[in-house]
Design goal:
Blueprint (H helix, E strand, L loop, with lengths): L5 H7 L5 E2 L5 E3 L5 E9 L5 H7 L7 E5 L7 E3 L1 H9 L4 E5 L1 E2 L2 H4 L5 E4 L1 E2 L11 E2 L3 E3 L2 E3 L4 E5 L2 E5 L5
Parallel strand pairs: 3-4, 4-6, 5-7, 6-8, 7-9
Antiparallel strand pairs: 1-14, 2-8, 3-10, 3-13, 11-12, 13-14
């Protein structure tokens, strides 16, 4: 595990990093997580989220732009477990989780807008591997994300 504090990284790299707006709630037992990003953009449909989490994560973080919808969850305990199984370090959602109490006991870092019990559609619509913009920042595949209790910080290069 990478040892860091976003506050220190922010101070040491002022003007070189992006700081996400504090819109996320923490889920998962990993209080701190970092890695290169992979992205998916969907709307109330988690088929591509499941597909991406079913591939080797290699310590990366899946960033999901769910358009900010709070009508349904894009990740639940089954997908979080899939992420752990395939080596994903974290999941950041511009959307919701469900099964939050179960996810809180799992060794993965998850940030989402909130929790909601409703499940998503299963149509398979969306895009992968593109820059996505929410929380006042742009998440780019291959760049670095650092998350802890103080927030989310993005960097083009590793800074830990």
């Amino acid at each position: 595990m990478i040892d860091f504090a976003t506050t220190d990284l922010s101070d040491e790299n002022e003007g070189k990093v992006q700081i996400a707006e504090p819109i996320f709630m923490p889920f998962g037992a990993a209080e701190r997580f970092a890695g290169q990003m992979a992205t998916v953009k969907v709307h109330e449909d988690n088929v591509l989220v499941r597909a991406r989490l079913s591939t080797p994560g290699d310590g990366r973080i899946l960033v999901v732009d769910g358009g900010g919808s709070i009508r349904c969850a894009l990740v639940g305990d089954i997908l979080a477990a899939l992420g752990i199984e395939y080596g994903w370090t974290g999941i950041v959602l511009n959307g919701c989780v469900r099964d939050s109490a179960v996810i809180d006991g799992m060794e993965i870092g998850v940030r989402a807008l909130t929790a909601v019990p409703n499940r998503s559609k299963k149509n398979g619509w969306g895009e992968e591997g593109i820059p996505v913009h929410f929380a006042g920042v742009t998440f780019r595949p291959g760049e670095w994300l650092y998350g802890d209790a103080d927030g989310i910080l993005l960097s083009a290069d590793p800074i830990h």
